């Protein structure tokens, strides 16, 4: 088995192999990313406004958001938002660039811990590191600009490890100071950042110096950690309403919270590789046990290897401690949540995998060099390592396929939200649009009233673009779709609280990009009281119009009479044509009479 360093002729293929994961992820972000703020990002217009009016104070940056102090991410959001017209792609690109820098730090650390041995085993391990590190299973973080904080924390922690492990780069004093600054930045970027102080203790102990110097450094390091914790928890009063409700509604959770927490933790650890609700916790337990086994082999049995292993021990501990913090904060949602909805929890956890890969490489090298192995034993050892690497790689790719399915759904609803945000001046303050789970406004922020309020701030700041004068076109000769008539074409009579269902189909002729939404209006209103998603399979339309683009051109909606005025109403359906910047009426109208609420 040839373990020698690759020849010059293999450098170009190697570079290409290393580039595949980050380039694939960049393409993933560009394809599925959408320029629309959603959920937590809507806290930012208030910051933009305060900055523009000169009233921004440090407390605005320091204030708690959920469980987190987002001081440094907020500074990033301010700089990116105000210089890009709050284009969300700026945040997505920032996250990706931080990931690139973090991987370069990991690669440099791998070179430091494998001196003069950049051979096939080295590249196999680091190619796997690249594949896992840029895994699409993190799709929620790749596609949500608000998660800059996660990538910033990872970068600060890994860069601090590199500083503490690179004696020729800086003096010991500045290695120590630089890494402490980075941990401080991580600590006030999100709660998980506090774990960086504890995780980096092995790196701090690995700095050159006598026993007294090491003790002093450790004492100051722990003191800095305690100061960070104290500052972090000043006035710390997170909203525990969801957690309290979960305990009330789930007796098993109330009786066995520790069991739920452990189950959640194991599921988080396994989620980058498998999505089985039955087996994930077992794989998570196996991964954790293997990590501790490596620590036993490399630290207890072979302490002379500490100088090579301490950065990876720190990185592994950070991944583990971050996962513990996440589990502590979210376990009440149920252990399955870590698998089904936990994509955003995986970015820190993946560092545990990276540490395991690199520690395994050091262990395999030690076995090959320390033991007088026969040739076939060497081959078997390397083959076993290669097979395990292959299995992890295949599982990562398979999870990537699952991520594509999830990202497709997420991107669809984000694009729908983007359309609604652009057209928000045409969306009424109706019960459907304000409260329905199918409202395109509620999809991007659950409180539609708050969303409208923040949009006003954006308009005043001239951030983002909103449609102002969109013509309404009613032409029966235009074939954009149809609002299906009611059974027997009879007018419908309902009361305010009664639900009703409408359906139809909609397309954009001669356009590659098909619409995601239709809007409903009543009478002659130049505004809309409801929206419906165009997701229903309509193979008949695709066959009739001879285009596969129309395969899912159908839509259906259920709403109550509360969104309509009392009396007779003519309901119309519309589709927005972004190319022509027009609302086009679909053929057909429905007559609905809403009766007033019954008197008690």
Automatic annotation (TrEMBL):
<feature type="transmembrane region" description="Helical">
    <location>
        <begin position="218"/>
        <end position="236"/>
    </location>
</feature>
<feature type="transmembrane region" description="Helical">
    <location>
        <begin position="121"/>
        <end position="138"/>
    </location>
</feature>
<keyword id="KW-1133">Transmembrane helix</keyword>
<feature type="transmembrane region" description="Helical">
    <location>
        <begin position="144"/>
        <end position="164"/>
    </location>
</feature>
<protein>
    <submittedName>
        <fullName>Uncharacterized protein</fullName>
    </submittedName>
</protein>
<feature type="transmembrane region" description="Helical">
    <location>
        <begin position="281"/>
        <end position="300"/>
    </location>
</feature>
<keyword id="KW-0472">Membrane</keyword>
<feature type="transmembrane region" description="Helical">
    <location>
        <begin position="345"/>
        <end position="366"/>
    </location>
</feature>
<feature type="transmembrane region" description="Helical">
    <location>
        <begin position="312"/>
        <end position="333"/>
    </location>
</feature>
<feature type="transmembrane region" description="Helical">
    <location>
        <begin position="12"/>
        <end position="34"/>
    </location>
</feature>
<feature type="transmembrane region" description="Helical">
    <location>
        <begin position="378"/>
        <end position="398"/>
    </location>
</feature>
<keyword id="KW-0812">Transmembrane</keyword>
<feature type="transmembrane region" description="Helical">
    <location>
        <begin position="176"/>
        <end position="198"/>
    </location>
</feature>
<feature type="transmembrane region" description="Helical">
    <location>
        <begin position="88"/>
        <end position="109"/>
    </location>
</feature>
<feature type="transmembrane region" description="Helical">
    <location>
        <begin position="257"/>
        <end position="275"/>
    </location>
</feature>
């Amino acid at each position: 088995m040839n373990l020698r360093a690759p020849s010059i002729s293999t450098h170009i293929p190697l570079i290409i192999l290393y580039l595949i994961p980050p380039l694939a992820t960049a393409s993933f972000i560009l394809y599925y990313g959408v320029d629309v703020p959603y959920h937590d990002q809507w806290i930012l217009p208030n910051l933009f406004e305060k900055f523009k009016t000169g009233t921004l104070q440090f407390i605005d940056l320091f204030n708690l958001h959920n469980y987190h102090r987002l001081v440094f991410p907020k500074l990033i959001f301010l700089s990116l938002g105000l210089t890009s017209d709050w284009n969300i792609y700026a945040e997505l690109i920032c996250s990706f660039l931080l990931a690139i820098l973090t991987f370069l730090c990991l690669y440099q650390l791998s070179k430091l811990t494998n001196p003069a041995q950049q051979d096939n085993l080295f590249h196999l391990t680091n190619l796997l590191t690249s594949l896992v590190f840029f895994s699409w299973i993190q799709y929620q973080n790749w596609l949500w600009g608000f998660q800059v904080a996660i990538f910033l924390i990872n970068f600060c922690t890994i860069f601090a490890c590199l500083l503490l492990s690179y004696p020729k780069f800086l003096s010991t004093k500045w290695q120590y100071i630089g890494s402490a600054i980075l941990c401080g930045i991580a600590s006030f970027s999100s709660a998980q950042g506090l774990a960086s102080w504890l995780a980096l203790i092995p790196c701090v102990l690995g700095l050159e110096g006598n026993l007294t110097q090491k003790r002093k450094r450790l004492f100051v390091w722990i003191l800095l950690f305690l100061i960070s914790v104290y500052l972090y928890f000043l006035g710390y009063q997170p909203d525990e309403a969801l957690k309290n409700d979960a305990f009330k509604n789930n007796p098993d959770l109330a009786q066995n919270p520790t069991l739920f927490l452990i189950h959640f933790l194991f599921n988080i650890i396994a989620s980058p590789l498998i999505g089985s609700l039955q087996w994930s916790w077992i794989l998570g337990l196996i991964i954790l046990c293997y990590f501790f086994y490596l620590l036993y082999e490399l630290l207890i049995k072979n302490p002379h290897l500490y100088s090579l292993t301490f950065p990876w021990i720190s990185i592994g501990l950070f991944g583990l401690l971050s996962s513990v913090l996440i589990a502590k904060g979210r376990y009440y949602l149920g252990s399955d949540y870590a698998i089904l909805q936990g994509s955003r929890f995986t970015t820190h956890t993946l560092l545990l995998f990276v540490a395991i890969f690199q520690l395994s490489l050091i262990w395999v090298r030690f076995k090959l060099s320390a033991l007088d192995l026969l040739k076939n034993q060497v081959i078997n050892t390397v083959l076993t390592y290669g097979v395990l690497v292959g299995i992890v790689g295949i599982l990562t790719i398979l999870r990537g396929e699952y991520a594509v399915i999830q990202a497709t759904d997420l991107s669809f609803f984000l694009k729908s939200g983007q359309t609604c945000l652009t057209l928000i001046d045409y969306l009424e303050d109706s019960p459907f649009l304000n409260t329905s789970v199918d409202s395109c406004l509620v999809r991007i922020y659950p409180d539609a009233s708050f969303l409208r309020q923040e949009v006003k701030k954006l308009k005043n700041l001239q951030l983002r673009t909103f449609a102002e004068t969109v013509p309404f076109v009613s032409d029966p000769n235009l074939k954009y779709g149809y609002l299906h008539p009611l059974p027997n074409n009879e007018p419908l009579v309902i009361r305010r609280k009664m639900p009703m269902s409408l359906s139809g189909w909609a397309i954009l002729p001669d356009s590659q990009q098909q619409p995601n939404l239709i809007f409903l209006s009543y009478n002659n209103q130049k505004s809309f009281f409801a929206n419906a998603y165009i997701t229903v399979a309509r193979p008949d339309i695709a066959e009739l119009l001879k285009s596969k683009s129309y395969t899912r051109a159908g839509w259906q909606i259920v709403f109550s009479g509360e969104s309509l005025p009392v009396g007779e109403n003519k309901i119309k359906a519309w589709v927005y044509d972004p190319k022509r910047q027009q609302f086009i009426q679909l053929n057909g109208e429905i007559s609905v009479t809403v009766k007033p609420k019954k008197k008690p």
